[in-house]
Amino acid sequence: MFDHGTGMTMRYYEYLSTTKVEMLYPQIDRTSRATGGEVGIDLTVFKATRKTDGIRPLTVHDKLTAVEEWIYAHEPVGTPDEPDVWIYGRADLLATTLTLTDESDDPGPVLFTPSAGEGTDLLMGGSSRNSSSSRAYPDMPLPPQLRSHSSPVSMSATLAALADDLEIPASSDDAGHGRVIAGLAEWIRANDGRPAEPPRTLGFRVSPPVRLGECEFLAKRLRTAKHKSRPATLATPLFVALLD
Fold first, then answer.
1. Cα→Cα distances 146→130, 143, 161, 175, 184, Å
2. At the N or C end, where does the chain have fewer CB atoms within 10 A?
3. What is the pTM of this model?
4. Euclidean distance between the first and final Cα of the chain, in Å?
5. In terms of pLDDT, which residue wins out, 139 or 11?
6. Strand-pair category, 210-227 with 230-242
7. For residue 112, which of 198, 181, 10 has the smallest C-alpha distance?
8. Burial zone of 196 (CB within 10 Å; 0-12 exposed, 13-18 middle, 19+ buried)
9. What is the mean pLDDT of the chain?
10. What is the pLDDT of residues 202-225, one digit of tens each?
């Protein structure tokens, strides 16, 4: 067992998938009402106390709290070393973003990986619009249609293309997937602290990795494969939050 730390401390979100929260919250609300159960807190009361008597409506952070409690209570939650359907962890993280170098300059995914790769390789990726750096520039022009980078198909295809650019051997079997995940995580770690000039590959502009510091995260596992007798896991975050 481990402490998930839900709602007990202030969080500084580096990444928050509002899309996942808004998608999952109505589902756990319906399930709770159908079964007469509770999600740590009674969702009916939780909603009513924020929607009546002039009290503020539910925010995405309120919904995130309920979604987290539901996941911890009802879903298999593992760790980076022992991944399950969900992965909870605390680690010193590195982050980098990809921009596709086609005519639209479509923002690619943001990638996170622990700065220490001992025992396991974890690579987390999601849409860069969910990162705090993206929200810090609300006037930044973005294409009208952003590609989703949280699905297994989209993320795997993007990372396979990047691995090809970086000459990391890939194949469609389990060993190939493990080699790509582990190879990209190692590439990010190897470029930590490099000069500010961003590396360029054939299909992407890759930002220099940034060390975020100690973070807490909860991520949905997309794939786990073996690489050199240890797990290499690709996941997409529900949130990444900096710790004090």
1. 12, 6, 18, 31, 23
2. N
3. 0.78
4. 23
5. 11
6. antiparallel
7. 181
8. exposed
9. 76
10. 677 788 888 999 999 999 999 888
